[in-house]
User: Fold this.
Amino acid sequence: MTETAQLRVGLIGVGGVCGAVHYPGLSRIPGVEVAALCDPNTDLLATRSQAWGVPDTTADVDEFLRHGLDAVVIATPNNLHRGLIERVLGAGCHVLCEKPLGMDLAETIAIYQTAVSSGRRHMTAFTYRFVPGMSYLKHLVHSGALGTIRHARVQRLQDWGEHAIGWRQYRAQAGLGELGDMGIHRIDYAEDLMGPMRSVCSSMKQLVPRDRTKEGQSCPPQDVEDWVAWIAEFDSGATCVFEMGKLSKGRSSHGDHDLTELNGTDASAIYHLHTPHELLFARRGEPYKVKPVPEEFLARQGSPRDPAEGDPVRTFRYDQAWEFVSAIREERECQPSFYHGMRAQAVAEAVVTADRERRWVDIAEVP
Assistant:
């Protein structure tokens, strides 16, 4: 397939993340047509159809897959991922799926093996890999600018309030709470930066019931964690402390806290999501100073996205679609692929076991 091949892409699940990330990313790429939409919410389908100029919409997946699609993006509740992935791959389509891929490790391994057997391109939506600051931080680590990484800390603290947050608060639909929502992203990019994790110890807590909506209506209480912390040891010998939570007062909207700090033998560096075009950097004996992200890291190579366009905390996410389309056109593996989704699930499952059994847990081997 050529680098300019025309692609027809369909979207399953056209809610918030699709509107904020997947559609705007795909719609900017020359030669890509968003050709069909699928969602059980017919009112939302009608709204998206009109706004995006996509007339072919349906609530039926089989009808959706008859639209001659080359690729499909899945952005649905987590419990639907496996069945949809299998149907999409069975129809001969490449697939990009939101995280986490499956409800547990066994299901995620099955998803990965199905994708490999299909011969189609498969990608996990680990969006934070595409932050310019994260791309530059990876370059600094892998080029040796920090020396050997000794220890690190990763924090994602937000204030979502104490009202209900929909399907994400129910284990039957989400599988995990904060660990599967924000934590699994950080598992992925921590391993991308520092290599495989070897073992973890952890603590997970459900702190509030979330048994009322914003409007004050009662609803079933949540049954997943809304705070999680763990210590990870890496094969390299490095150690990292992680903490994720949705109940940190003062951390709403752009005031939320998203930090990764790496301490190496030669230097340290800090990434903040909300300053995506810069890092903090310091060598031994020096204070941290701002280090602008070089131009070549502000967008992925060849991406049609203008790094100066819009809110940089949001628009970096469009490069995820560029990676997906580029991998299809270049007939190569996506980065990150379903392998990375499976690997992150293995770590997440170890975090759950470590909390339940109050001990260090080794990360399970994956295919």
